[in-house]
Amino acid sequence: MDDREHKAKMRCIAVPVLNRKGRAVATISATDDAERMSPLR
Questions:
Q1: Cβ 15 vs Cβ 27: under 8 Å
Q2: Domain boundaries of the chain, sorted by first residue
Q3: Is the pTM of this model over 0.85?
């Protein structure tokens, strides 16, 4: 999670997509204005 470390008003989160063996094969991320994306979301 990037909680406004690089851009003052942006918050980012990413999670891995795992295959059947539990290996990371991709990543999904979301970025939005920090005021709209609360830590609970």
A1: yes
A2: 2-32
A3: no
Structure token digits, residue 2: 């990037």
pLDDT exceeds 70 at position 5: no
Q: CB under 8 Å to 23, separation ≥6 — which residues?
A: none
* DSSP secondary structure, 6-37, as one string: SSTTEEEEEEEEE-TTS-EEEEEEEEEETTTS
Cβ within 8 Å of residue 34, ≥6 positions away: 3, 4, 9, 10, 11
- 33: tokens are 């204005």
pLDDT reported for residue 4 = 45
